Amino acid sequence: MWLGTLYALAAGLMWGLVFVAPLLLPEYSAALLAMGRYLAFGLIALPLAWLDRAELRKLRGADWLEAVKLSAIGNLLYYVCLAAAIQRAGGPLPTMIIGTLPVVIAISANLRNHRRDGRLPWRRLAPSLLLIALGIACVNRAELQALRDEPNADPTRYALGALLAIVAVACWTWYPLRNADWLRDHPGRKPRAWATAQGLTVLPQALIGYVLVWAWYAVSGNGFPMPLGPRPMFFVGLMVAIGLFASWLGTLCWNEASQRLPTALVGQLIVFETLAALGYAFALRGQMPPPLTLLGITLLVGGVVWAVRVKPEPAVMLEKHQG
């Protein structure tokens, strides 16, 4: 239980990095950031695939198709929406909307996977969900007040950012449930190889996407200096760092957690990503979080600690034999 929690924590710390990339490269489009990140991830996966070649040979056509779906929705589409949301609404608002994932995934998994993982009793799960929801509400209130105090705020732009963040939530509610399905159905497979497989399948998708973005800039007369933009060295370095730590290593740690913990519990541990993203965002601002935000963070951590202590109850399966 605790080893799986530590893996989820490591994944969250690395995944939090993806929230600051759009703030560090505001002149780069969300699509270009997403394609660049996963192009780097795919290239990193190539030498790793050689190390896992024996394990990868065990994957069948249906497994590769599942990896394609996971990488397309959980990687590319998710990050296009998230990066676009952050560029339109700033870092905190999309981060807090994404922060609802622990509640959304926990409820979805408890309804969907209780026969496989056991049911986390609602009466014992409710306090942790309530603490997490209250924590998110506190941080949301503080950040939305800061937005209202901003004289140049564009409500339409912020609303579009919020909408894109909601789409990102939908993508990443679907991804961990389907990813956990595969991992739990294949307990003998190595999570590292499955992370690498997703990197291999995202590579051609990201390459095609990158070429399409380049072509769009050329046709529309955008004037953006392709292929690497106005800050090529910083762009390449940041994409490689995120591709290695957030995409491959983060996915590896998440896969390890998914094999060890019930899906409903793993869903709540995504809160570590939210906390890391908030920490990085405030560090980038060079300021401490306000008291209400700190209260929200405390509630979030309290909810996670409570959730870790909840043990699933085995589903009672009654079979009737006739004859």
Describe this structure in words.
It is a single chain. The protein is mainly alpha-helical and 323 residues long. It has one domain (2-308). It has helices at residues 2-15, 21-24, 30-51, 53-56, 61-89, 92-98, 101-112, 114-117, 122-148, 155-185, 191-220, 232-260, 263-268, 271-285, 291-308. Helix 1 runs antiparallel to helix 12 (232-260), helix 3 (30-51) runs antiparallel to helix 11 (191-220) and helix 6 (92-98) runs antiparallel to helix 14. The N and C termini lie far apart (43 Å). Residues 317-323 have low confidence and may be disordered.
Offer a quick outline of the entry.
With 323 residues, the chain is mostly helical.
Total helical segments = 15
User: Which spans have pLDDT < 50 for at least 5 consecutive residues?
Assistant: 317-323
Strand content: under 5%
- Rg from alpha-carbon coordinates: 20 Å
Shape: globular
Biggest beta sheet summary: none
Average pLDDT score: 84
The SSE string, one letter per element, is HHHHHHHHHHHHHHH
Q: What's the number of domains?
A: 1
Distance between the termini: 43 Å
